[in-house]
Structures are given as C-alpha cells and as structure tokens.
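subagent[fold] <- orchestrator: predict structure for attached chain, return tokens only, no commentary.
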Amino acid sequence: MKKTKMTIAAIALVLTLTFSATFVALPIVSAHDPPWSIKTYAYVSVSPESVGVGQPVLVMMWTSISPVPTASGAYGDRWHGFKLEVTKPDGTTQTVGTYDSDPIGFQWTMYTPDQTGTYSFKFTFPGQTLAGENLSPVDPTGQDMIGDYFEGSSAETTLTVQEDPILPYPETPLPTDYWTRPISGEHREWWSISGNWPSKPRNSFARYTEGPETAHILWAKPITFGGLVGGEFGVHSYHDGNAYEGKWSPPVIINGVLYYNKYPADLYAGSPGQYPRSGPKPGFYAVDLRTGEELYYNNDTRIEFGQILMYDSPNQHGAFAYLWAVEGSTWHAYDAYTGDYVYSIENVPSGLFGMFGPNFVYGSDGSILAALLGPPSSPFGPPQPPSWLALWNSSAIPELIGAPFGTENWQWRPYGKTVDGNKGYSWNVSIPAGLKGSINYVLEDRVIGSNFVSKRSGMMAIETENFTVWALSLKPGEQGKLLWKKDYTEIQEGISVGMSSASLEDGVFTVYSSQTRQYWGYSIDNGELLWGPTDSQTAWDYTVYTMSNIAYGRLFSVGFGGIVYCYNVTTGNLLWTYEATDPYYLEAKWAGHYPLMAWFIADGKIYVGSGEHSPDDPKERGSKVYCIDIESGDEVWKTHFYISHWAMNPAIADGIIVYLDIYDNRIYAFGKGQTETTVTAPDMGVPLGSSVMIRGTVTDQSAGAKDTPAISDEYMSEWMEYVYKQFPAPMDATGVSVHLEAFGADGSYIDIGRVTSDGYGMYKMMWTPEAEGEYSIAATFEGSKSYWASYAETAIGVGPAPTPYPEAPSAEEVAQKTIDKLPTYPEAPSAEAVAQETINKLPPYPEPPEIPEIPAYLTIDLAIIAAVAVAIIIGLYSIVKKQK
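subagent[fold] -> orchestrator:
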C-alpha cells in the first residue's frame, strides 16, 4: 500500500505542475474600488474511474482561479475550506475532510471504497476574500487584488466500484540476462540490485546489489607499472603504494561508472586527501564499470567521495550526481557524468572529512549530514562539555536553490555558485549539561556518543578506567533530548576498550578491547549490558587493527590474525569462524594465516581480502580474496590477490566488485560475464532417417577475455588466474551446459537433450529427426554463477526418405527360378527299371558246355610245373640285376 500511495502522490504533483504553467501566466489586475466579485469554477477528478473494493483512488480538487495574485512559492494566500463529500452506493454520506489549497489552488487526497456500486464525490469551494496572508517580503505581485471576493463553486464526479480489483501495472522481474545502464525508469523493481557506492558505507554493508558468487573477472586495468621488474632486479616488484601512499582511491561508483584518482594522496601532507602541490598534477578517471573503458579523464583535481542528491519539490523531482573534491574547509562539486565543475561550499564544518575518508552520513535524500556537538573545545585548555547539538546539511544552504521566492524557490540551481557552509545548519538545539565526549554513531533516529577516560601513552590508550555512553534523539520535535546515559566501570582492570559498531535494527552497540581481543554487547535503548565478554580472538588481532561490523543480525570481526569471526549480535554467541590459512612452509608470517582487511558485506556474503600494512618485497605468496557465506561460514570462492592496507577500499555496485591487486598494480572487476552462444547444423536438407550433427560454442564476451571459452563454475578461480595472471590452466576443465531443442513448422516441440561444452568452448550432439519438415534448432545456455545466459538458433530441413530398392532374392530363390524356367522333361525311369529293360533286350546265352572232370594226377602235375616256372623267373631276375 505504501508504494501505491507514493505513486499516486507523484501523479498528483505532476498534475499540479501541469496546471501551474497556465495559472502563473495570468496577467496582473489593477486595483478595484469597489472590490470585484470574481466567479470561480470548481473541478474534481477521481482516478481511476473504476476500481475494486478496497483499492484506493486519487481524488484531485481545484478551482479555475488560483490564489496566484499573491501566492508565490512558499509565500502568499491559500484557498481555505475545500470540502469533499462522498455518497456511497448504500446512500450514506461521508465528509472526507476540509483542506487548504496549494499555491496554485489544488489539493488531493486518497480515498478507499468499501462496497460495490457507484460512489458520488462532491467538491465544494466555499468562496473567499483574498486576505493578503503570509505575503512575500520582496515580491508585491498580486497584492493589489487583496480584498477581491472569489465566489464559491462546486463540482461532482462518480466512481464505479466492482468486486474484482483492477490489476496494477505489471511488475518488471529482476534481470536474468546481461544488463547495462541506464535502467529504464519503468523497471522500478530493479532498485534492489542497482545500488551505488558514493563512498564506503560506515558499516561496509552494501544492501542494494547482488554479489558475485565466483571469481569470474570482467576486465583488468593497470593503474601503473606493477608486478615483477625482472632481470638484474631479481625477485623484486614495482612500488605498490605501501605504506601511506595507496594508489587506489577513493573509489566511487555512480550509475555504472567507476571513478578513481590518478595519483595517491599523501595522507600527511596537510589538507586531508590532497596530494602535495609539489607532486604530480592531480587528476581522476571515469571508466565503465562493466568494460573498464575510459569514459573521460579530468586533469584538474582529485576526488574524495561522491553524492547522489534526490531533490524533490513541487516544481522539480529527480536525482543529481556529484563528485566532491576537498581542499581543507572548502568542498568542490563536479558533475559525475561529465567531470565538469558545478559549485563549491566554503566553511564546511571541520572533521567531516579526515585522513581515512568521510566522517558524515548520507540522508534519505542523499544529502550529506553531520551531527555536531559544540561549541568545540579550545585546543589550549581541557575538554569542555558540549552545550548544543546541531545538524549540518549540505543541501540546506539557501543559496543553492534558484531564489528565495517564486517558483525558483523550488528549483535546485547551484551552478557556478560558491556558498557559505555556515548557512547549512538545519537545526541547532541545546542539550543537557554535563555530557562529555564525542559522537560515535549517527543512526536514523538518534546519535550515540561516548567519553572514555583512559591512561595513555601518546596516541595509544593503555588502560580504560571508566567510560560513559549516551544517546540523544534526532526525531523531529525531540532533537537533542537525552534518551539515556550510562556510566561503566565493570570493564576489567589493565585493558583499554573502545566503541566498535552499532546497529539500530538489532538494538545493539558493541565495545572492543584490543589487548584481550574481546567484545561486549550493550542495548542501544538503555545502555544495559546484553552479553560479553566473548572468548579472546587470536593473538595477532592485537596488532595494527581489528575491524567489526554488523549486518544480518551478526557481528563480524576480522584482523591481522587471519580469521573471520561471526557472532550472533544479540547474544554474543560465536556462530562460526573462517581461517585464511597458509598451507606452505613459512610463507605467511602470522601463525600460518594471512592478515585480513578490505572487506564488505553484500547479498548474504562477506568479501574479505588478505594483505599487509607495510609488505616486504618480495611479498609473501598465496595471498587471496575470499568470499564466504554468512549463514554457514563456508567458502564460496577464493582467488590469488594482494590487498594494500593503504588502498584497501573495494567497491561494489550492480553486482560487480572492483579491487586493486598490488601483486601487479591492476584494477580487477569481478562479476557475471556476458556470453555468446552459437549453433550450426547441416545447411542442406537431409532425408528422413538420417542423423545430423548439431554443434556450436559458448564463449565469454567480457571485455577482458572476449571470445575465450565459457568455463564451469567449478574451475572458475583457476581459469581466471590462467587467463589474467599467468598461472597454469586447470586440468580437465569443463565448459557449461547447453540445452538443445527443436521446434517444428507445425508447432511440434522436441527436447533434443543437454550437452556440456568442452574446455575450448565447443559442444556437439548427434540427433535423428523423426518426421519430415522444417525445424528450428535452439541452443540455450541458461547462465551460471559466472555468466549471464545467451541463446542461438539455426534451422534444418528434413525431406522424404529415399525410395527403397527391392530386396535381393536369396541364392536358393534364384536357382529355383532358373529351374522353373527350364522345359519340362518326362519323368526319368528308375535305375532298376532301366537295368531291367536292358536285361530284357539281351539275347539269351546258350547253356555252357559241360566241362569234363580232370584227373587228380594231372592236377598235381600242373601245380608242380607252375611252381618250377615261377622259380626260374625269379632266378633270371636276380642275375640281370647283379649285372647292372
């Protein structure tokens, strides 16, 4: 409902301004004696004209003549007594209210019908004599009509209410494909993923962006020479800005553009953030966040932070984007789109921008706000308790608008001006006596301040003897009211403590001791102790710094000990830890861990980088950026990276992180990459029953690695290190999944299947169409954690199957057909019959003669003769053989 009201209010203001152009142009009428009586006409409109029960409508009321004779911006007369009566379908009458008009005679309200039928709306202007109320001190226009009477008038309209609601304008879903700036104003729902980074948030919590879920890199851009020098310089690298001259600042991201300075700031050169005048001429770059392409370079100044100011007045609505340069107490605004100078503010209160960046907050409209205590203590005496609380607002300086009266009083027109920051106080109130210390946190409805009494050695607190914390209200009408004050003495002896973080949402502020590496949690509503101390963190967290922030109901703590600690912020219970360990012998000197810094929280993940305050050269190897899931503490991804303590400001917007890696002095942008999918199939038609080869590629189209293979999330860290940082390519890396589909000309659909591309980006699959016709073949890469989706299409034609040849006959069939073609012979007689017939044709043989009987002695004699003959033959053969 809130969004609906805001939308309708915006419509009302647009309508108001539409009519204002007509009325402002009315001529001035000369004085009248006697006074005139001027006829008016009333108008009333209900939008929409038909709704469902329970749906609010916008009711606009106005008159034909506005009180413009004297009305001028905030000054002049208004019509009084606008009356709106509503008659419901059941006949009951309701007076919605009486109203005063705006300067041009308009007023509006919201009305919600609760029954079906026809509603009648009657608007009545009772008539009024122009009285000369609240006249402009500098503009006499229209005052000669004071005393004229403007007659009353009325108008009616109707509203039809039905049972079913009228559908609202369809919401635009969040993008699933690659997208760029600018975003159409119609896609209102995209606000949740399109935040900016005008300066580092005080709690390092980027609420309005998605966060990269892999180490995919979009581009890399050198900021100067970096990495190994080589040759006679051996293992040494180029200077990286450590210490105290970090090369990567601020950075700022506005509307998909990244801004950073060409040269580092000398943090001890006098004016905060200013490069010494004896150094190189300052300058800053504007580059496209998605591609790294340089958009422009301004060689006149260096920037320190950005601002998006949402200006909203009856005459003007919309945002202005600025980049700010700081020169002591004078700030200069530059147009973020062009880099051109716009305006300056002199006498900005001290302390709003310091050695390590902004000490202010942004208001809901983007104004730069600072809650200040005063009067400031004298540097020549002991600290004095403050007596007042003031709110300084960069947008409240009167000269920044067009003029103090008329319609220009509602125009943001700072161009070319130099204005006095002493006029920028929205309010200044007295506070209870006796409060000491300074403001630590400016929250939505209160400030929290503290005063620590400690033994000190120079800048170092050795022991906190006692401390006081207090809260003052910022609510309208209650500014400066003391909400509570609490004195603490229970912190153990021998340690120092300090404020570490606060969360209005969770109702907690925390205190930290560097000596014991412990936290305590206190109620933001009354200062009572809620929990603590926690168990001590690792010993290395005592050195240099330990940082804490609150997000998602958790307190996160990181430091030189190389361990991320996650506590429940309302109970102090330790939920998980993540350790940035060194698996190699004595590479990292911090008890086997890499120091952690340069961190922020976004999209349910904490991103933290490892590095050093003053790294040796050569640097220790194996330093990384880590992405950790805040629910489980599990590692999402990590990749080789070295963060500079003096340029440790990462930034994130539009789902893209930018870091400076001082291993090679290059800016890297991490985020989901644009891809291109291709698909091909045979160009000529194929006959039905044939298989076709579908093949194509899926490639990364990011600016830094255009046309390289799209690789699976599993291998992304190693793949990016190979593409950008000379590491070996991952073994057995696979590509991405591609979904292949076919769409027939007849509307038929075939899910061909899924295939995974290889490490070179190519995929292929055989497919056999089951029917004739034309087919569109779609190849869809549906996206991954590393890449946006992409799609390609081709076509194939499938013709009729070829005419089949008759089946060849078998050998038996061929033989049989040959036999069948032979002439028919009479059946041959059997062998027995032929033999019998032959026998029958033979003449009969005569009977053999009777052989006489041989005597027995002849038989014996004949046998003897035969034996002798055989013996003689054998003997003769032997003689002949010997002679040879």
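orchestrator: received. Logging for downstream: Residues 1-29, 268-278 have pLDDT under 50 and may be disordered. The CA atoms of residues 156 and 671 lie 57 Å apart.
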